[in-house]
Design goal:
Number of strands: 2
Mean pLDDT: 88
Order of helices and strands: HHHHHEEHHH
Oligomer: single chain
Strand order of the largest sheet: 1-2
Number of helices: 8
Distance between the termini: 43 Å
Length: about 200
């Protein structure tokens, strides 16, 4: 529930002028949810739950990471079936799709980027699930790095507007996700090594 609220807030704050013009319409419109808003809100909520459940904030995030990857992929199925504008640029590839009756209609054959993202999400979930024992926090770092990389790459063929230095808003957020993921991996490994090296 908190993730859905975060996704909605991220979306509405992407366009402050529209929010000021019609606050109720923007906040209560059934369309318009942004993944990174849901991710951030979900992370904060899971960290709180982890502390409350005595499993630790990072331990809870590690437990949830594979499921978050699957959830993202499942969400993209909804984007595909509704034709909500998450598709890509025009393509002549044989698996190109058109969405003449979509929420954001197009009669052109375009890249079905939600399918690409579904496949990437399931691969990421499998990789995280099959990992052996890792230091606390490393699975979450792997998730942030891999999911950020996948989203950054797919944005090159999506129709999202380019805002910052030729990059979309999602690409900038993806870079942030990858940086945080790398930092978490490095921290988790160093923290685990320090604990092993510490005298009993």
């Amino acid at each position: 529930v908190i993730g859905v609220i975060g996704a909605k807030l991220w979306h509405v704050f992407e366009d402050p002028s529209a929010l000021l013009h019609d606050p109720a319409g923007m906040l209560f419109d059934r369309a318009g949810f942004a993944w990174y808003g849901g991710l951030i809100a979900g992370i904060l909520t899971l960290m709180w739950q982890g502390r409350a459940a005595k499993t630790g904030a990072l331990g809870m995030l590690d437990l949830a990471a594979p499921a978050a990857a699957v959830g993202y992929g499942v969400g993209r199925i909804g984007c595909l079936t509704s034709g909500d504008g998450d598709y890509g640029i025009a393509t002549s590839l044989p698996w190109g799709m058109s969405f003449p009756h979509g929420l954001v209609p197009t009669t052109q054959h375009v890249h079905p980027t939600p399918i690409y993202e579904l496949i990437a999400a399931l691969i990421i979930a499998f990789m995280l699930w099959k990992r052996g024992k890792q230091p606390t926090g490393e699975v979450t770092g792997d998730y942030l790095l891999l999911s950020g990389l996948a989203r950054f790459l797919v944005e090159f063929i999506r129709i999202n507007p380019r805002i910052y230095f030729g990059m979309s808003n999602a690409q900038v957020a993806s870079i942030g996700s990858m940086i945080v993921g790398i930092a978490m991996i490095v921290w988790a490994r160093r923290h685990a090594a320090a604990r092993v090296a510490a005298p009993a």
